[in-house]
C-alpha cells in the first residue's frame, strides 16, 4: 500500500518559521507568491532588524518561533516592531 498524502487548508498566505539558537536565528519563509527560502541571521539587534526588514519586504504576516531556553526573548522584542503576528511554540520534550 502506498503512502497517502495529507492535505491541509492553507490559512496563512505568507508565513515564516524561526528556529532560534544562542548565536543564530534560522528563518524559512513560504507562501503564495514567494519562493520558499531559508536564511540564517545573527542575534544582534542589527541582525534581527535585518531579519524583520526581510520578512516585511516579503509581506510575511505570520510566524512561529521555536527556541530552547531564553534565547527567543530578544528576538521577539525586536520583531515586535514589524507587522508580524509572531507566536512562540514549544517543540515538546
Please give a structural write-up.
With 93 residues, this protein is an alpha/beta fold. Strands 3-2-1-4-5 form a five-stranded mixed sheet, with helices on one face. The protein has helices spanning 45-57, 72-79; strands spanning 14-20, 24-31, 34-42, 62-67, 85-89. Strand 1 and strand 2 form a beta hairpin.
Give a quick rundown of the structure.
The protein has helices at about 45-55, 70-80; strands at about 15-20, 25-30, 35-40, 60-65, 85-90. The protein is of the alpha/beta class.
Structure summary, number of beta strands:
5
Strand count, sense and barrel status of the largest sheet are: 5 strands, mixed
Strand order of the largest sheet: 3-2-1-4-5
Average of pLDDT? 92
CA distance, first residue to last residue: 32 Å
The percentage helix is 10-25%
Regions with pLDDT < 50 over 5+ consecutive residues? none
Total number of helices: 2
Fraction in beta strands = 35-45%
H/E series = EEEHEHE
Q: What structural class is derived from the secondary structure elements?
A: alpha/beta
* Computed Rg: 14 Å
Dominant shape: globular
Write the layout of secondary structure elements.
Layout: E1 14-20, E2 24-31, E3 34-42, H1 45-57, E4 62-67, H2 72-79, E5 85-89
Parallel strand pairs: 1-4, 4-5
Antiparallel strand pairs: 1-2, 2-3
Helix pairs in contact: 1-2
Amino acid at each position: 500500500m502506498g503512502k497517502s498524502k495529507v492535505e491541509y487548508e492553507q490559512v496563512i498566505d505568507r508565513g515564516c518559521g524561526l528556529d532560534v539558537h544562542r548565536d543564530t536565528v534560522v528563518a524559512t519563509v513560504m507562501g503564495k507568491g514567494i519562493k520558499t527560502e531559508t536564511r540564517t541571521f545573527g542575534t544582534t539587534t542589527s541582525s534581527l532588524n535585518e531579519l524583520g526588514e526581510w520578512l516585511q519586504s516579503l509581506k510575511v504576516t505570520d510566524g512561529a518561533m521555536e527556541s530552547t531556553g531564553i534565547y527567543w526573548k530578544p528576538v521577539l522584542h525586536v520583531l515586535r516592531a514589524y507587522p508580524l503576528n509572531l507566536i512562540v511554540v514549544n517543540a515538546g520534550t
